[in-house]
Structures are given as C-alpha cells and as structure tokens.
Write a structure and sequence with these properties.
The structure holds three protein chains of three kinds.
Chain A (H helix, E strand, L loop, with lengths): L2 H27 L7 H9 L18 H16 L3 H12 L15 H30 L5 H14 L1
Helix pairs in contact in A: 2-3
Chain B lengths: L1 H24 L21 E3 L5 E3 L7 E7 L4 H16 L5 E7 L4 H11 L5 E3 L4 H5 L7 E5 L5 E6 L6 H14 L1
Parallel strand pairs in B: 3-4, 4-5
Antiparallel strand pairs in B: 1-2, 3-6, 6-7
Helix pairs in contact in B: 2-5
Chain C lengths: L1 H29 L2 H30 L6 H6 L6 H6 L5 H22 L7 H22 L33 H11 L1 H13 L6 H4 L1 H26 L9 H26 L3 H24 L13 H22 L1 H4 L11 H33 L7 H21 L10 H25 L4 H28 L7 H24 L2 E8 L3 E4 L2 E12 L3 E10 L2 E3 L2 E5 L5 E3 L1 E3 L4 E7 L8 E10 L1 H19 L16 H9 L1
Antiparallel strand pairs in C: 1-10, 2-3, 3-4, 4-5, 4-6, 6-7, 8-9, 9-10
Classes of the chains: A mainly alpha, B alpha/beta, C alpha+beta.
Chain lengths: 159, 179, 652
Amino acid sequence: MSGFTTQWRWLSWVLMGIIGVSALIIGATGDTGPATAGERRSELAATIRCPQCRGQSVQESDVAIAVEIRADISNRIAAGETDDQIRQVYIDRYGRSIVLTPDSGGFTGLVWIVPVVAAGLATAAVALAFQRWRAQADALAEASDEDRKLVAELRRDRK
Amino acid sequence: MKNRSAIAAGLVAAVVAVFIVLLATSDTQQTGAVNFEILGEVAPPIQGPTINAGDYSLQDQRGNWVVVNFFASWCAACRVEHPELVELSERHPDGDVQIVGVMFADTEERAREFFDELGGDWPALVEETGSIAIDYGVTAVPETVLVSPSGRVVQKWLGANGVTADEIDSVIDRLEAGG
Amino acid sequence: MNVALGDAGVVLAFVSSIIASITLLVALRNDDEQMRRTGVKVAWLVVAGAVLGFVMLERALITRDFTVKYVFDNGSSRTPPLYNFATAWASLEGSILLWGLVLAGYVGVVLTKFRQRIADPLVTWAVVVILLVTAFFFALMLGPADPFQTVTLPANFVDGPGPNPLLQNHVLMAIHPPMLYLGYVGFTVPFAFAIAALVTGRVGEGWLVETRRWTLFAWGFLTLGIVAGSWWSYDVLGWGGYWGWDPVENASLLPWLTGTAYLHSVMIQERRGMLRVWNLSLLCATFSLTILGTFITRSGVLQSVHAFSESSIGPLFLAFFGVIAAVSIGLIGWRGDRLRAPGRIDSPISREGSFLANNLVFAIFAFVILLGTVFPLIVEAVQGEQITVGTPYFERMTMPVGMVLLFLMAVAPVLPWRKASGELLRKRLEWPAWFAIGSLVLAVLVGARGITPLIAFTLAGFASGAALRQIVLATRRNGWRGLVGRTNGGMIVHLGVIILAVAFAASNSYLRQTEVTLDRGEAIEFADMSFRYEGTEITDLPEKRVTAALIVVEGEELRPAISQFVSGQPVGTPDTLGGFTRDTQVALTALPENSNKVVIRITTQPLIAWLWIGGVLMAVGTVFSAFPHRIHRRPTDPVSADPAALVDATST
C-alpha cells in the first residue's frame, strides 16, 4: 500500500469525522421542545397513568377520567404551572403509582440503578476473564523441557 | 471445577427461587387503582354554582356531616344508588346530614333530567372540568365521600356498593359515638 | 357428542403422552427396540388426540352448540365465520387447547424427521421431554382449563355473548395467536434436545447445532407473531401506539431476546466448541421464559390489557416454571465440568469476542425488561407501596442497549475469527462508516432533529453498511446464492431489524398528536394537513353497530369508527392514511351524540410503514438463512476419511 493511499485513508476518516460532527451539531441545536401548549400537554399526559385503566396513560385512554385529567392538565398549563408541579398535584391526589416513571430516590430508585450496576459488573467480569485468559496463554507460550521430551518420545514411538 | 459449577448453579437457583416466591405471593391486581389517598385529609373545597340551589360552598357546611356524591347521568350504578341517597335526605330533614352532588363529565341539562327523573333536592354542581373530582382522587363514578363536621374526609365508597341510607347512617353513628 | 369426543381427544392425548414417555424410558433403560417402536406408536396417538380435541371444539363453535360451556361463554350466532373460528383461542381454555395442538404438531414433526435416529438415546430422551411437556398442558385441560364442560341452557336462552369485542374487530385475531404459539411452542423442541444432551452427557457433539434450524423456525414465527401483534395494536388502539411495554408484551419479548442471543452464540459453538454453557443456558432460559410469559398472561399478577380473565391456572404455570428452572439449572450445574471449552477466546476484538459481547448485551436487555416488569411486585412486597413502571422507564433504559446492539451489528460481521488488527478493521469498516455519515446527513437534511434519534440513525446507517457490504461481497462471489445461507440470510434479517429500529426511533421521536372538536363542515390544519369533518355514517351489522365519522384528509376519506357490540364495551376503530414516509391516524374518542360535532384525535408519525417492512424483511431473511448454501451435512455424521490413514499420509 503506497504512502499516498494510506494518507488518503486517514484523510477520509478525518473528513467523515468533520461531516459527522457538523451534522450532529446542526441536528442537536435545531431541536426545540414541545411546539404548542397542546403538545406539551400530550407529552405530560403521556407520563401520567390513567387511574381506571390497565397501564395506559391518560394521553392514550379515552375513559371519562382520562378525558377529565387531560382537560385539567391543559388548564394547569394555561395557569402557568410547571410540569413537575402538575405531576406533584396528581401524586398528592392519586398516590405515587399515578406517574408512569418510578421515583429515582429511595428503594424505588433501585430499578434505575440495578441494571446499570449489572451491566458494569458484567463488563468488568468479561474484562477480567479476558485478562486471565491472556495471562494463561502467555504462560503457555514457552515450550518447557518436559514438552520437548514428550514430543521426542512420541516421534520415536511412531517410527 | 465441579465446585465452581455447583456454586454458580446454586446462586442462580437461589435467585430464581426468590423470584418464584415473589410471584407466588403477589396478589392479583385489580383493575385501576383503589384510591383512598384522601382518607383522613381535610376535604378539598367544593365551590361553585349548582343547578338547583344557587352557589354552594362546602366550607359553609362545617358542623354538619356532608355526603359528597360524584355521579353522572350515563352511569348505571349511579341510578342504582340515587334512591338510597333520596331516602337519606328524607331521614335528615333538619340538615345535620347534608348531601351534595358533583356531576362528573356530563352536562347541566342531563343533570337536571337526572334529578327530575329520580328525585332528590340537594345541591348538585356541574363543573366544566373535573377539577373537583380530581381533587378528591375520583377514578370513576359513582364515588361517595363522607366529610365529618370538622371538615375531614372519613369514609369513601367506590361504586354503588354500600351506598345505602342505612349504611351511611350507621357509619355516622359509629363515628359520633367513637369520637 | 362434541363434548364426549372432545374430552376423549384430550384424555387420549394426555394418557398417550404419559404412556409413551414411560414406554420410551423403559425402552431406554433396557435398550429394547420393540418397546421403543411401541412408544413411538403411542406417541402418535397424542397427535391424534390433540387434533380430535381441537376439531371438536371448532365443531361446537361452528354449529353453535351452546351446551358446551366454552361456546356458551364465548360463542354467538352473530359472530362472523372467521372470528367464530378464531374464538377457539379467544378465551383461556381454548388457548390452552391451541397450545396443546401446536405442541402435538411438533411431536409429530419430530417423530417424522428423526424416525431413523430414534434408536439414539439422545433422540429418545428429547422425545420424552417433549411428551412430558405435552402431558402437562393436556393435564391442565383435564382440570382447571377444561374446554369441554357442559352447561344446561336456561329457559329463556337466546344467544351467546360472542367473544370480547376487541377480539372480533380485526383479521389479525386469526393470525397473531397461532403465529405466536408456533413460536413459543416451537422452542420446546430445542429445549428438549438440550435437556437430552445434558442428561446423556453428550454435550460435545453437534446436537445443539443440529437443532438450530428448529430454533430458527420457532424464532421466525415468534418474530412474525410479535410484529403482527404490534400491527394489530396500531390498527385498533387509536393513539398510534404499537408497543406499550405492557407486561404481556414484555413477556413475549423476553424469550425472543434470549432466542436471538442463542441463534448467534451457537455459531461460536459450531466453529470453536466454545460458549457451551451460554448456549445451553440461553436455550433453557428461552423455554422457561415462554412458560413464565404464559404465567404472566394468565395469572392476573400484573395488570395488562392483554391478560386473560383470571383463573386458578396461574399457580400451576408458576409451579411448572419452577420445575423447568430447577431441572435446567440442576442439569447444567451437574454437567458443568463437561461443558468447559478446550479453547479460549483469544482476543476481545474478534468474531468470538463480539458474539460474547452480544450475549451479554441481550442478557442485560432481557434483565432490564424483566426487572421493570416485575418491579412493582417487588416494591409492593418490600414496602407495601404501589408504584407503576411504565413506558418512560423502558424507553429510557432500552435506548442505550439498542444503540450498543446497532453498533455490534455494524462491527461484528466484519470481524475475523480469533483476532483482528486495527488496520483490518479500518479497511473493512470504511464503507459502512461512510454509509453511517451519509445516513446522518440525509436525516438532518429531511429535518430530523434531536441528538438521540440522530445518533440512532447514524448507527443504523453504520450497521446497514456492514450488512450490505457482506451481501454485496457474497453475491459478487456466488451470484444469487450470495443471498441465501446462514450468514447472508442473517444479514437480510439484520437489515430488517435495522429498518425496524429506525422506524421505532423515528416514530417515537417525531410523533405529533392533538385532539380537536370539529363541527360539521369545519376544517383544521395540523402537521401541514387539513382535516375536515363531513358527517356521521351508521351501519348496522348482525353483531355490532358501527358509527363512523367521515373525515376528509388532504382529499382522502377516512372513516374512524366506534363499534357497539351486543355485549361488552364499545370498541374504537381508527382509520389510517398510510404512506411510505408518514402515517396519519384519526380516531373517534367518544361516541358522537349527534352528527353535528365530533371529537377526534389526530396522530402523525413518520416511518410507521418501515416497521412492517422491517418485520417482513426479517421473516424473508429467516427463510433465506434456513436455505443451505452448501451441500447440507449433519455435523454429527461421521467424516468421510479414516483419521488414522490421514495421519499416515501426512507423516510420510
């Protein structure tokens, strides 16, 4: 491979990097939050559980209470309450289970932490295993005198 | 080598066993949360125009027992319990036990029709959004809440079960006696 | 007559499965050829019994024999024929009978395909295991899940209620459950062979590899079943949702995840004899998870829109799950020493290393979903508190896992076995990397914003580039045969997965939804489209009354409707304007009081069609990968040359 081709190869990767990062920057900064109050309500409603349903959010369900809660959320948004305030209002009235996202503190926070810890432990275990295998393979690299003697013996027996 | 396999297998088996015990001892879940968060709390305000009695405020009823009945004209169970509430209101003409109805997801016209058809003369609020219902943690109709003379929520009935004049009276008597 | 014959079928299947198992076990013990043949014959009676039972249930449904309790509870003279046929699996007892039928079908196919090797103890053990599982399911039908109970008709009986309205509203009712069952139940076969291999100690031969095709078959149908379920949800729910992270949905995904991991990991076992503990564990886990999934669906322990009505069958499934888990863990633990591989994985940057990483990622994926699903139970047990773990949790936790998987899909196919150098990687990944950047630029150009979906699209481009590179190289080498065979078919499946992942990311990130009230003749603008309400149309059918609203969207007529059945809740049916790049769905949120005003919900999502395209591509790729691209040789066949002669030839 000529020097020029290798140079071009590196250049092409650098070019890729530049284009990629630029595109990501354009893409990331163009992202605005919810465009209208209606969309903000939809996003918020998607995090609140419909109390009468089996696991649907108030955004999805059409039972009477879901419709009422959606309307109530719209009113609260118009009144200027923040997302967190509105969620807290519902937690006060319906209990913690009204929110579809589990709390990140306390015992409930385990549901967020345990998978991350498990992933970390698994990666560490595999890394350790690879290290151990590398060490074992290295230890075997040199043929010992005993090995040589064994091979010589076998070759003798074969003739 | 054998030991390591045995230990690993043992650990996995222990985790699975705990998992199975957890599933075995879990109760089956009911549809929708049974929401009693409001019990023991100060009753949230109920305020606003009614269809049959001018403006109403729960605050003004301090000193009396108040039965707050969330209902709707399209709800079959509400029709079942309504006669019992009529009976209750007739038993307490002097107003020591008041009733107030809060319409849920319905229109004023239909509320009037409902009362015309089934009777009852207590104030009934029709609100535009269900904010009073949400304040009381209502998940479906009918739900009936008993507010003590001191303004606290002391009992909640879901559905029409147990919402009889006798039942409500006996609960009130029990609480008055118990203090 | 229906009940009598139906019961006879169930009893026949149950008794035959027990007798056949015992006979085969005795034949194993005594190495008795005669007994073995008898055992096989009795095993065929299981198939006969299952077919008889199912045919009788269908006959009862079709003839509207309401003296059969199942028909009394679920049938109706008004239900249209297709849905009436599908009512056989609309309720608990029938669904267990369907499971039994599919299981018996697999028994028959196994007996046929392995008829020349039945003398092999390993095959005999596998058949015994399948028969014992069959016995369990038919035992359920003799007890708590009996589809053939009788009922005396009350004096004023007119008609049955029909199945749940949600189950007679869409044609996929006839397709989704059978496909799902072909998948779930299909995993019994490789599981049985895994147990047989562990019991006989013959874990070194290619038996696990041999049953890979069975696993592929089951996996393919499970994939189709899950995708069909998503399609059904999308068509019916009304808010553009197709995956709700509902406990039953999660339960169906778990065996799919471990099954996928197995399909990859077994290639390492085939090539280098490694990862045997992983493969056996993954197989046993896959089957156990199908039983666990059945438990979750039928026990009521977790709330779900998909759950069957509660019954006493839950604890029995849980107990069966416990037995399966105990047997699997016990056997793998016992044979652990025999399973240790002679070789080691030399380097993490290698095909083997990436497949090991793949196993880990899928294991974590499954763990996260399982944890999230059962966590409310844990919290309730420990703290007595009720919490909900819903879509926001699952989306946030599985998103990074999905990204890692996309990355692995990009890198693993170009990795050589044993070891890779940086230069090799750079050379092979250059093409896919340009594809990745191209995808990113394209996404930004069409208006996609937000760093998370953009990274997803970049990785998707990266992975597709790697898959396409492999396919292009293979077709250049072998012509059309470059599209079939394990690796190439697998690349097509990967493309399907990638398309599905892109669709998932795009539709979730760029969903727009609103709810509006429209007067007759009024139009509104939303998401660059106009929606005009024209009026309501009411259609009366024997089983339901359909109230539809005519909405004109950009010149197209959509008719979202609400159907009121004789019994049960009214059911909404949205109408969708589909397209290659965008779907617009309109749903009626409530029955309109009069035709002057309607409240509709409008949902637009990009790339929904790509979900189904990706799913179909996955199925096509699965079929292609089952095709042999070389002359098929069983790994357990003896080699053609005599080893001793070979050594002599090379030593001189």
